[in-house]
Specification:
By secondary structure, the protein is an alpha/beta fold. It contains 8 helices and 6 strands; from the N terminus they run αβαβαβαβαβαααβ. Helix 4 links the parallel strand 3 and strand 4.
Length: 230
């Protein structure tokens, strides 16, 4: 998915990468594929203690860090009338509260050292609406506003931005792509008339972490093939 592509993108540019995920098997696979400059750690973004252990472990092993890619995400495509309250709460807890907690815990060292870049993962669905994705859209819309608030609070030392991908070829989307009519409509919704590749989001993340974007903060960078321009 996007996390794998972003991790690889930073690693090939000689960054030391910590692959943190609740699914330690997947994180370990990504880290092993990257090689010596990557390590895998299990983390639950909804658990403050887990995030604090991640933060403290990274600081102890590497002396600190400069970039936080904050990209948890789950989704369910159901109408509001079908969606259970429990699933609504779970999506908000992971996608929005998880980003808040990770920013709060892992962003603190960046604020203290007065430098760094935070890159949150929003979505085009946080910028527009769509049927059967109200919980996901609400969570990603929250990430959009959280990003702007953090940028204002942590300026001028720490930059905080978000990526808003269109429909990408990720595990989160592939199952839905089996619906041929849905796939056609979503593909045609992009001006470029295709789904994006995860590596195209990785390129945008690298830009937001680099000196090339040193005057960019509080921005929601759409990587969406023109979806939100229509």
């Amino acid at each position: 998915g996007l996390g794998r592509a972003i991790a690889h993108g930073f690693a090939v540019r000689n960054a030391t990468v910590v692959c943190a995920d609740i699914n330690i098997e997947d994180a370990t696979t990504v880290a092993e594929n990257i090689g010596d400059n990557a390590t895998a750690v299990k983390v639950d973004v909804t658990d403050t203690d887990s995030l604090q252990a991640l933060r403290d472990g990274v600081i102890e092993e590497f002396g600190g860090y400069d970039i936080l890619c904050n990209i948890p995400g789950i989704n369910t495509r159901q109408s509001v009338l079908e969606l259970s309250e429990a699933r609504w709460r779970q999506i908000l807890e992971v996608n929005l509260t998880g980003v808040f907690l990770a920013a709060k815990v892992l962003g603190e060292p960046l604020v203290n050292q007065q430098s760094g870049s935070v890159i949150n993962m929003a979505s085009i669905r946080g910028l527009d609406g769509g049927p059967n994705q109200s919980a996901y859209s609400a969570s990603k819309g929250g990430v959009v506003q959280l990003t702007k608030g953090l940028a204002a609070e942590w300026a001028p030392d720490v930059r905080v931005n978000a990526l808003a991908p269109g429909y990408m070829k990720t595990p989160l989307v592939r199952e839905a792509m089996e619906d041929k009519e849905w796939h056609r409509k979503m593909r045609e919704g992009h001006m470029l008339e295709r789904f994006g590749e995860p590596e195209e989001v990785a390129g945008a993340a690298i830009y937001l972490a680099a000196e090339a974007s040193s005057f960019v903060t509080g921005t929601i960078l759409s990587v969406d093939g023109g979806w939100t321009a229509q």
